[in-house]
Amino acid sequence: MDDLFNSQADDAGPVECLGQPFQNDKARREHFLKLLAEKLKDPGFRNQEGFPHGTDEAILEMSDPPYYTACPNPWLTDFLSEWKVANSDGTPKAYEPFVSDVSEGKNDPIYNAHSYHTKVPHKAIMRYIEHYTKPGDVVFDGFCGTGMTGVAAQLTGRQAILCDLAPLATFLASNFCTTTSPETFSVEVDKLHSQIESDVDALYRTNDGQRDFTIYSTVVECENCQNQFDQWTESYDEKTKGVAANIRCPACNSQIASKTMKHARTTVYDPILDKFIETKKRVQRFVKIRPNTGPAIEVWSSEDGNSYEKFSQEILRLGVPILEIPRMYESHYKRNLAAEGVTHFHHFYTPRNLLACLRLWNLIRTRYPLFKFAFLNTSWHATIMRRYNAGGGHRPKTNTLYIPALASEGRVSKIYEKKLQDIIRFLAAKGSPTNKPVITTASSSSLKNIPSDSIDYIFIDPPFGSNIMYSDLNFIWEAWLGVRTDIKQEAVENQIQEKTLDDYRVLMRLCFSEFWRILKPGRWMTVEFSNTNASIWNSIQSALSEAGFIVANVSTLDKKQRSINSYTSTTSVKQDLVISAYKPNGGLEERFEKFGSSEESAWDFVKTHLKYLPTVKSQAEGLEFIAERDPRIIFDRMVAWFVRHNTPIPLSSQEFQDGLRQRFPERDGMVFLPDQVSEYEKKRAQVAHAPQMELFVSDERSAIDWLTEFLKRRPSTYQEIHPEFIRQMGAGWRKHEAKPELADLLEENFLKYEGSGDVPSQIHSYLSTNHKDLRGLDKSDKRLVAKAKDRWFVPDPNKAQDLEKKREKALLKEFETYLAFTGRRLKEFRLEVLRAGFKAAWVNKDYQTIIKLAQKIPEASLQEDEQLLMWYDHALTRTEADA
């Protein structure tokens, strides 16, 4: 094989890899390729979860072992052992999470080197890595995509292991993490230029110059008069270069809206398949010619011989992949590609561009992998998915397989040479680091080659439900590579793959469980989250909790330059959320084993957890309320901890809140450790206003929370509370959640001063502060009593416990009516009743009751409530374990 990949390393001389010396890097690669070839012959090796579909030859051609393999990497343990010796300091760098909101743009030579579906800017990841790790530490990314975590690790002097299920992703990651210098690659690019010009660019030559792009227009049939005409001619404006959405029939002048256009169909012979196929009728109408000298010219044109009749013989000789598009969400559910005439891989290309890509592929196939890296980006832009854009920059629609009515056939040679220059700029910006991340193509649900407690930090940008169907979108690229994703372990919500939101959550839980296993105790994982769906958010939170991680902070990541969908869609995410979660240190687990389900274990957890929470979060206006320090959220974290260990919860909510107040200082509604208070108070003294907790009333629990905050500030009568309360019960109220009566909420959760005895301190303090004429009065003064009568207030801790028990008894009584319901679905219910009932059933180990009732409520209600989802998921897990 004419393998120029190693020419740079050949010049560098001897190299050492995993303790073995080699004459040069080419010898290293050949040695490990032979070992990998032997591994591939082992059926047990190929039987691993997530093993991709591809021949031995295709996998070996993509791989650069032991650093990168287009299959599970068998050398991960060897690298970890070597790194452990080199970096013996095992102490963690950070105990608190990275709390600053991060803003990093995408307009960067490294980021723009390939247009993959999603990427987190490497500069953003660098900030997290530098906070959580020290030079030489090992970073892991289990959904690595293009390898931006690897790039960030390289540029910060850390070691990295990257994993992805998709062979395309890991191949791109290996190229993004290359150590090739821009000078070396530039020399190879110059050598290739003349061959590209003679072999590929020649396909676009005309007597007047080169075709920069050619417009292919669908043919429209008027439903009024059945006249057929091409869409481009009737929609293109030569002055503005724009295209009208609605057009008129040139024969009868009927207006035709873009959404109701009927496209004409035709039957053509496909020599690749050797049969006639039905497709949409498309005609060539417009060409942009770039002369050898002078400005580009635009001309109307008819067919120029771009046909299989002209090119099929060479296409067949070069060996086009004959691949039928499998049943996929993008091709068979979201789109109907068969109606477009696209049923096989080669249908994504015009005959000319298919031949151009085949010639180019054969030209660069045995050269630097970076040439293939550039080709893959080019092959996407060479498809008929490339849309005409009046402002220039014709490109396919992002994150979908969409065939436009007006397709722009790009000049493959020009697109490719531009991408080569992009890669040279990318290499120059990166600066040729010497350390190489280790990359494996496998499922993160089974990381058997990585020992437990061996990773210092994890950064992931996982798939989110049905946001993006990665394997579908990778089909074209992986067809060129010859190695395809094994979709069985793909973590998506996908109708075609028959994967529900529950299936997605189970797969994410399996992955998070593996991440928890390989992460060192007391270390951190950062989860970048980009989805507006509450059920996906809760699925991620539930999966994290079940795996053993504890969330300590949520911040934002603004990628600045957003996709067109982010600008135009009201539901798209403008800023991604970043979840900071930690694996508890080993001491906490050891103490839990010793004390079990006891109050001591609960307070030990709280003390440990508070240490991991941010002490101060600054924002432009002052300090930000730290939600994770809210006593109610701390209680939820404690409950999840005990549930995960399948042990009873030793404290009720009110007992926990009372104990919290006795043991830990509280400031501005947030709980701290004693040694954290001074730091917070120092920062607090520098700002004018205390941080405020934001409350959004969406269900009964949040309504009670709102009333608690309201009455703490202003003990009030029913008549005073009612108008304020009604304003809160707006459009944000959850569907299916029964709206409680204000009188019932007050009666069940708060106390009312009836006018007998002394005025309660809370009411006395409020009235004397806000009414001058009531200041200095004794608590039994008739004037004060009259003003205080019928005011509701928050009960003191002793009476609060009695109220909680009374309320829980009433909730469980109503839960029994839900259980007795004989219909298929509960149309309306109280989430507080379900939460109390699920918790009681859990305590009694009555998992079937939880599962039975969960099936009676709408799926969305279950998925969107974090507490219900926690009880339900754990009930399923325990039921499966007992089966």
UniProtKB/TrEMBL annotation:
InterPro entries, per the entry: DNA_methylase_N4/N6, DNA_methylase_N6_adenine_CS, SAM-dependent_MTases_sf
Boundaries of every DNA methylase N-4/N-6 domain copy: 52-165
SUPFAM superfamilies for this protein: S-adenosyl-L-methionine-dependent methyltransferases (SSF53335)
GO biological process: methylation
Keywords for this protein: Methyltransferase, Transferase
UniProt-listed Gene3D superfamilies: Vaccinia Virus protein VP39 (3.40.50.150)
GO terms assigned for molecular function: DNA binding; N-methyltransferase activity
A Pfam family reported for this protein in Swiss-Prot or TrEMBL: N6_N4_Mtase
Family of this protein: Belongs to the N(4)/N(6)-methyltransferase family.
Name of the featured protein: Putative methyltransferase
Organism of derivation: Candidatus Thiodiazotropha endolucinida
Lineage: Bacteria, Pseudomonadati, Pseudomonadota, Gammaproteobacteria, Chromatiales
